[in-house]
Q: What sequence folds into this?
C-alpha cells in the first residue's frame, strides 16, 4: 500500500514538473503572454549582401578644373570618374603640412590652374580614408575628417600640389610628398574634353552650360515582411509582443528592444536603449560598427555611400546614402521625400554601441528596370530657377539626384536637381 501511494505521489510530482516546464518554456511572464510557435519564428535570411566599408567610401562628385574658367563634373560610376579615382587610390601621399585656408587664393586656383577636386560631402575621417587611399598621416592629421581633396598644377612649377581640407573649415593639410607628377594631373584634366562644360558660381556650385541627360527608371518593387525584420533584429523573434499605436504605426517589442513600423511610409525604426556601451568611440570606429551592424541585420539592398558621421550631445549618427545607376553612365543619390522614406539607412550609436537603426522596408528588382533618357535643365534656364530659390537663402550646392515615387507595385526614380541652400533646406527642380 505504501509503495502504491509513493508511486502515485511520484507520478503527480513528475506531471507537475512537466506542466511547470511547459509554462516556463512556452509562456511569457505577465497577463499579455504570447504562445511561442515555430510558425512565428522566421529563420534570419539575408535581405541584402554584406558590404565592405571600403566600397562605401568615395567622393559624391569630382570637379575637373581645366583653366580659363572652364570646369567639368564627373559623378560616381561614370567612365572618367572611375578611371581617375582608381588611379588616385594607387598613389601615395605623405609629409602633411598644416596651413590656414586663408594662405591660398582659391578663386584664382579654381579659375586658372588645371586640377582635380574630390568632394566628400560632410566629410570622412582620415583613418577611414586610409582604407581607400595610400596616406601616411602624422598624429595631428590622423585625427581630422576631410571633406575635400584638391590636386592642381601651378604654371612653371615642377611638382603637383595636393591639399586636404579639414571639415573644421579653417585648416588645410598639404602633402609635401605625393606620388603624382604635373603630367599625371594634366592627363587627368584632359579627359572628357567633349563633355558638357560647367560654370562656377561664386566658387560654391557649378551650373552646366547645356541640359544634361539622365536615366529615368521604373522598377518592380516589393517589401520586407515584419517577420523578416524581427528575425534579423531580435534574438528570439517568437517572443515579441505587438502594440498598436494611435498614429497607425505598429510596435513589436521583447520588453528590451522595440521595432516600430510605419506602413504608410514603408519605414522601420529599431531601438535598443539597453545596449551595453563599448566604451571607446571615434567617428571612424562608429562608422565601422555601423557597417557591421547593417551587415548583420539586413544587409545592403543596393549601392550606398557613407554620407555623414554627425556627433550629437550623447550619440553619433551615421548615415548611408543610396545611389542608383551604374558604369559607365554614372550613379546619383536617391533622396527621400516626407511621403516616401526611401534611399537612406541611419544608425545611431552611444559610446560605440548601436542604439537606433532606421531604414526603408522597400526593395526593388534592378534586373527588370524599364529605362528612358530625360534631360535636366541647364544654362540660363537653370540659373534663373536657382536665382528664384536664392531669394529664400543663398544656394550652397546643386547635384543631380533621383526622387522616388511609388505607383502600385512599381517604384519610379525621377531625375531632379537637388538644391541645398545655406540654411540647410533642400529643394528639387524639374
A:
Amino acid at each position: 500500500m505504501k509503495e502504491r501511494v509513493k508511486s502515485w505521489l511520484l507520478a503527480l510530482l513528475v506531471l507537475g514538473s512537466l506542466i511547470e516546464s511547459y509554462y516556463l518554456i512556452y509562456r511569457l511572464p505577465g497577463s499579455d503572454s504570447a504562445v511561442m510557435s515555430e510558425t512565428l519564428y522566421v529563420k534570419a535570411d539575408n535581405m541584402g549582401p554584406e558590404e565592405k566599408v571600403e566600397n562605401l567610401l568615395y567622393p559624391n562628385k569630382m570637379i575637373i578644373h581645366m583653366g580659363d574658367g572652364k570646369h567639368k563634373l564627373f559623378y560616381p560610376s561614370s567612365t572618367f570618374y572611375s578611371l581617375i579615382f582608381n588611379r588616385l587610390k594607387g598613389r601615395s601621399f605623405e609629409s602633411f603640412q598644416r596651413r590656414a585656408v586663408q594662405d591660398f587664393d582659391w578663386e584664382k586656383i579654381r579659375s586658372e590652374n588645371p586640377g582635380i577636386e574630390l568632394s566628400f560631402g560632410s566629410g570622412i575621417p582620415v583613418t577611414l580614408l586610409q582604407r581607400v587611399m595610400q596616406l601616411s598621416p602624422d598624429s595631428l592629421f590622423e585625427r581630422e575628417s576631410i571633406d575635400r581633396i584638391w590636386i592642381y598644377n601651378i604654371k612653371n612649377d615642377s611638382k603637383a600640389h595636393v591639399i586636404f581640407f579639414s571639415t573644421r573649415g579653417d585648416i588645410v593639410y598639404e602633402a609635401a610628398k605625393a606620388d603624382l607628377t604635373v603630367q599625371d594631373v594634366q592627363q587627368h584634366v584632359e579627359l572628357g574634353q567633349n563633355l558638357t562644360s560647367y560654370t562656377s558660381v561664386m566658387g560654391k556650385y557649378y551650373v552646366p552650360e547645356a541640359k544634361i541627360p539622365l536615366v529615368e527608371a521604373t522598377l518592380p518593387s516589393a517589401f520586407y515582411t515584419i517577420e523578416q525584420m524581427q528575425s534579423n533584429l531580435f534574438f528570439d523573434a517568437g517572443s515579441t509582443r505587438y502594440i498598436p499605436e494611435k498614429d497607425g504605426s505598429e510596435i513589436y517589442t521583447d520588453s528590451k528592444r522595440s521595432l516600430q513600423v510605419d506602413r504608410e511610409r514603408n519605414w522601420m525604426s529599431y531601438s535598443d536603449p539597453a545596449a551595453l556601451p563599448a566604451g571607446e568611440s571615434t567617428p571612424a570606429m562608429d562608422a565601422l560598427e555601423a557597417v557591421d551592424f547593417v551587415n548583420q541585420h539586413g544587409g545592403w539592398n543596393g549601392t550606398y555611400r557613407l554620407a555623414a558621421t554627425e556627433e550629437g550631445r550623447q550619440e553619433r549618427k551615421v548615415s548611408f546614402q543610396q545611389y542608383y545607376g551604374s558604369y559607365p553612365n554614372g550613379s546619383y543619390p536617391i533622396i527621400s521625400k516626407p511621403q516616401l522614406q526611401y534611399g537612406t539607412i541611419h544608425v545611431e550609436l552611444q559610446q560605440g554601441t548601436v542604439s537606433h537603426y532606421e531604414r526603408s522596408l522597400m526593395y526593388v528588382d534592378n534586373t527588370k528596370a524599364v529605362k528612358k533618357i530625360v534631360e535636366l535643365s541647364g544654362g540660363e534656364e537653370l540659373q534663373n530657377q536657382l536665382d528664384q530659390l536664392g531669394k529664400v537663402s543663398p544656394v550652397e550646392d546643386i547635384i543631380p539626384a533621383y526622387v522616388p515615387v511609388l505607383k502600385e507595385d512599381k517604384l519610379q526614380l525621377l531625375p531632379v536637381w537637388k538644391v541645398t541652400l545655406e540654411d540647410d533646406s533642400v529643394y528639387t527642380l524639374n
